[in-house]
């Protein structure tokens, strides 16, 4: 099967064009079915490609004069959708010139541009950013939203749950992934009104959805392997994800420091290197890089701004998998099966439907 | 100097009376100036004290017939303030019969009871739960709110910053602790309206406060040692704290698993035990147990529900330190120095002041 090609925004990211190109080249070495549309400043992309003749042969370059900066407001970036590398990468997906887009640029701008060009799926008000996180169980877990939506109401959270379950099914093969809402306690009375309302709706609709709703979970329990999808608003999700990353780095630094504190420990460190390497592999965010915007009519993947080439390659691999597994079609089909009373259409659509029914 | 005695709610916590008594006994062995008022079911407390004649000699028992349960709503618990161990422990602080109270019970009930009995300080709308967290720097950091207030407005956050700085000064000895607001990015436009407003107020008032406001921080950067006080709403704070705890446990479990995976690693583990013990010590939440409600006219400390005896002893030690250092008086004095335009009195008090001025 030929895979649709992947549009890479070569200009996004804190680490520059070379890291994006190195990452694409690494992904290409691993899977020679991958083909790319590299979007950005042509001379700089050409220069970065000199080291990678294999990638060069599998890529087309689409020149973009402009770059979306990290500090730019989404509304500003939207106005430059036709000239920036990010905007043109997404535009290529819209035109069908690429199957998916990957960018390491400004998350807010990427979300706004993707929503504008690709539109949300029927029944979805807002896309959510979802990533796979490691657990102590057999499967990775899907967590969303990780920062695309600062404020979320109950309806957003219910839609996130349905989309997260669809993503989890692709990754885990489970028929009915276990879904929980992130909260500051597991008792029914805990948390915000939106959380309590979403929990009640998911509990009531549980049977009609292809997921098993297990109530609330707390942030210290998400990696134990007893939950497949963790749903939260983008503010809390971003805080939780970064807290985990920071704690992992804190531990790694402490470990290094404590191993260095005596000769005995140094010897222990050398002998136990395979163990600590395994640990490092598990904790390195590059190995979990690649968050997808769920709920769009197309696949758009966000690579971490500070990811290295291995991280970028990982984000490309995630993108390819979502294309192979027909993520967009499967979520759309899931949503179509769900009763309208569960995902509830936006107020405007409801009003339009009511007006039509009245004719 | 004689320390005021500490009222211990012997019935709170998931681990039962014995752990609370064992913890108090451990704290007493370390500091023989400590005296206690042990509040709860007298026969059970007496039974738990059999193993601790030293603690017995330094304690009075106050019988309470009732216990606040973990699932109880704060409003329900408030009605039983005169009969429950938690209510009577706080009541003892109000009467001056104890200098401070420690409880491992229901956080919401403890907050409600403490607020009702002790009242908030002048200029403070809501108390906040603050804890000390380890960093890679020389000092622990103060983080608040950790779950007392699910929703916070800009005024709450500004008040938390002032109180957190006062606590930090006690712990670190710094004249002007570095304060940051927890957010999902460091750019000015990021986050909720309340966060942006609080940042603007703190920036404008920075000079008149005994703190140095450094803008926003993200959850992956709080333990690096370049910030002394992290301010957040109770929902995000609770999520961040638990995410860190969960990540630390995840790493410890992974480490154990990876060390067990080969003979070579097992040998490495044994040789490097001093290093991993140091790590364990740093990561064990019991070693950081004891969160204080800042903003009350009195010291009330929350011990983690699942803390062991060492954790309870740590919470008692935190309590004693706050008494010795006159936490309540120092925060009250700090608040008095701050201009009313910064901490802004509650609307009702402002209206009353206006009415009075109009007479």
TrEMBL record, chains A, B:
One of its GO terms (molecular function) is phosphate:acyl-[acyl carrier protein] acyltransferase activity. Keywords: Acyltransferase, Cytoplasm, Lipid biosynthesis, Lipid metabolism, Phospholipid biosynthesis, Phospholipid metabolism, Transferase. It is found in: Cytoplasm. Pathway: Lipid metabolism; phospholipid metabolism. It catalyses: a fatty acyl-[ACP] + phosphate = an acyl phosphate + holo-[ACP]. Its main location: cytoplasm. It is an enzyme of class 2 (transferase). Its EC number is 2.3.1.274. InterPro entries: FA_synthesis (IPR003664), Phospholipid_synth_PlsX-like (IPR012281). It comes from the Bacteria. Catalyzes the reversible formation of acyl-phosphate (acyl-PO(4)) from acyl-[acyl-carrier-protein] (acyl-ACP). This enzyme utilizes acyl-ACP as fatty acyl donor, but not acyl-CoA. Homodimer. Probably interacts with PlsY. Belongs to the PlsX family. This is Phosphate acyltransferase. It comes from Novosphingobium tardum. The gene is plsX.
């Amino acid at each position: 099967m030929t895979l649709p090609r992947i549009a890479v925004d070569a200009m996004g990211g804190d680490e520059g064009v070379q890291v994006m190109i190195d990452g694409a080249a690494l992904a290409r070495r691993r899977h020679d079915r991958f083909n790319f549309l590299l979007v950005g400043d042509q001379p700089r992309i050409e220069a970065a490609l000199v080291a990678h003749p294999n990638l060069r042969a599998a890529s087309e370059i689409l020149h973009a004069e402009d770059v979306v900066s990290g500090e730019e407001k989404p509304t500003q970036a939207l106005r430059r959708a036709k000239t920036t590398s990010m905007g043109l990468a997404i535009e290529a997906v819209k035109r069908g010139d690429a199957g998916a887009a990957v960018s390491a640029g400004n998350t807010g701008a990427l979300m706004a541009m993707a929503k504008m060009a690709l539109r949300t799926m029927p029944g979805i008000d807002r896309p959510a950013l979802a990533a796979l996180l490691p657990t102590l169980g057999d499967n990775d877990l899907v967590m969303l939203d990780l920062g695309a939506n600062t404020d979320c109401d109950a309806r957003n959270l219910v839609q996130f749950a349905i989309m997260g379950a669809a993503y989890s099914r692709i990754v885990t093969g489970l028929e009915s992934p276990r879904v929980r809402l992130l909260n500051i306690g597991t008792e029914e009375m805990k948390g915000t009104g939106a959380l309590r309302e979403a929990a009640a709706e998911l509990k009531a609709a549980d049977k009609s959805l292809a997921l098993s709703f297990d109530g609330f979970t707390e942030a210290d329990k998400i990696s134990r392997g007893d939950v497949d999808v963790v749903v939260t608003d983008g503010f809390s999700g971003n805080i939780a994800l970064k807290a985990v990353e920071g704690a992992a780095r804190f531990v790694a630094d402490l470990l290094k420091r404590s191993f260095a504190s005596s000769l005995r420990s140094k010897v222990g460190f050398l002998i136990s290197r395979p163990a600590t390497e395994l640990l490092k592999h598990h904790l390195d965010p590059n190995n979990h890089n690649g968050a997808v915007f769920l709920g769009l009519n197309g696949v758009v993947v966000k690579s971490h701004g500070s990811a290295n080439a291995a991280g970028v390659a990982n984000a490309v691999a995630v993108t390819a998998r979502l294309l192979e597994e027909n993520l967009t079609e499967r979520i759309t089909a899931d949503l179509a099966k769900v009763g309208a009373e569960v995902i509830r259409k936006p107020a405007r659509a409801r009003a339009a439907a009511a007006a039509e029914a009245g004719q």
